[in-house]
Design goal:
The chain contains 8 helices and 6 strands, in the order E-H-E-E-E-E-E-H-H-H-H-H-H-H. With 251 residues, it is α+β, with helices and mostly antiparallel strands. It has 2 domains: 84 residues, Butyryl-CoA Dehydrogenase, subunit A, domain 2, CATH 2.40.110; 145 residues, Butyryl-CoA Dehydrogenase, subunit A, domain 3 (Up-down Bundle). It binds flavin-adenine dinucleotide (FAD).
């Protein structure tokens, strides 16, 4: 029986009530066992005792709902537990659960890169329509502010893309990518935020207008810097892994 509330569930309304989908819930079955007592459950849409109490009105990603899910004496069949129902002696299983981030962080990074690329492509197309070309080989002191901005946006995007490809490639090849997934996510979330803000800025008032998609991309960008671990938390993970500190030693 599940009891509790989870705020900010992506597609929570769609998964729990508006489709024949399901929700994956991580819940504690044995508090005395600490992290080892956490299990994952599949709760099918329409299960009695699971309901939505709020749908967020958000800055961006408004095409996807973000809901508060409440579980009240929500009965889940034994067969819907992911993995063994036994509570193990160690928290190794929980480490496995956390490893799902190694797969999802590169996905969020890829989504950030898609938004950043759209904004950058739009800027480049608009500049070329106005007969402006970026002089890549020019000496730095001869570059215009605009050229510097566009080159910086391109460098940010390319760095994020390469980090993301590496993290995804390692995952695909069965290699541990915890460090690389956090690097990609931290970089891509920051890069897309900077790129889309700069794109709005470079296009002047039109960039801010709803006539174009730039303002939407700017609003959509920031979430990539927040969910699946914020930029700060991913930087913390990177620092821990590089310096060899545990989470207790570096928080
Ligand atoms: C639109 C949206 C959809 C979401 N969807 C889901 C979902 O489907 N499933 C799900 O489980 N979660 C979801 N979330 C939750 C999201 O993953 C978390 O909000 C996010 O990871 C931040 O965690 P928090 O809310 O605990 O932030 P907090 O820990 O309260 O952090 C607040 C701020 O403090 C900073 N901070 C915290 N600790 C440190 C530290 N040690 N050092 C430096 N800075 C620090 C954070 O980086 C952040 O900027 C969603 C959130 C949003 C906004």
């Amino acid at each position: 029986m599940l009891n509790g509330t989870k705020i900010f569930c992506t597609s929570g309304l769609m998964a729990a009530e508006k489709s024949e989908g399901f929700v994956v819930v991580w819940a504690t079955v044995d508090r005395s066992a600490g992290r080892a007592g956490i299990k994952a459950f599949v709760v099918e849409a329409g299960t009695a005792g699971m309901y939505v109490t709020k749908v967020e009105n958000k800055l961006g990603i408004r095409a996807s709902d973000t809901a508060t899910l409440v579980f009240e004496d929500c009965r889940v069949p034994l067969a819907n537990i992911l993995g063994s129902p036994e509570v193990p002696k160690t928290s190794e299983g929980f480490k496995g659960v956390m490893a799902t981030f190694d797969a999802t962080r590169p996905i969020v990074a890829a989504s950030a890169i898609g938004v950043g690329r759209a904004a950058l492509d739009f800027v480049n197309e608009t500049l070329s329509e106005h007969g402006i070309t970026i002089r890549y080989g020019a000496p730095p002191h001869k570059l215009t502010a605009l050229e510097r901005d566009v080159m910086d946006m391109e460098a940010q995007l390319e760095a994020a893309r390469l980090l993301t490809w590496r993290a995804a490639w390692m995952m695909d090849n069965g290699m541990r990518n915890n460090l690389e997934a956090s690097m990609a996510k931290a970089k891509a979330g920051l890069a897309v935020t900077l790129i889309t803000q700069k794109a709005v800025e470079l296009l002047g008032p039109l960039g801010y207008s709803r006539q174009l998609l730039l303002e939407k991309w700017m609003r959509d960008a920031k979430i990539n810097d927040i969910f699946e671990g914020t930029q700060q938390i991913n930087q913390l993970i990177v620092a821990r892994r590089i310096l060899g500190y545990s989470s207790k030693e570096l928080s």
